[in-house]
Amino acid sequence: MLQLTGTPPCLMKAWKMHEHELYCWLFRKVGNEADADDLIQETFLRAIRQQGKFCDVVNARAWLFEVARHLVIDKGRRQRACTPVPDEFSIQDSVPEVIDSLAGCLPRILDKMAEADRNILTLCNLEGMKHTEFAVLNGITLAAAKSRLLWARERLHQQLSRDCQVRVDESDHVCYFTPL
Question: Which pTM does this prediction carry?
Answer without folding.
Answer: 0.44
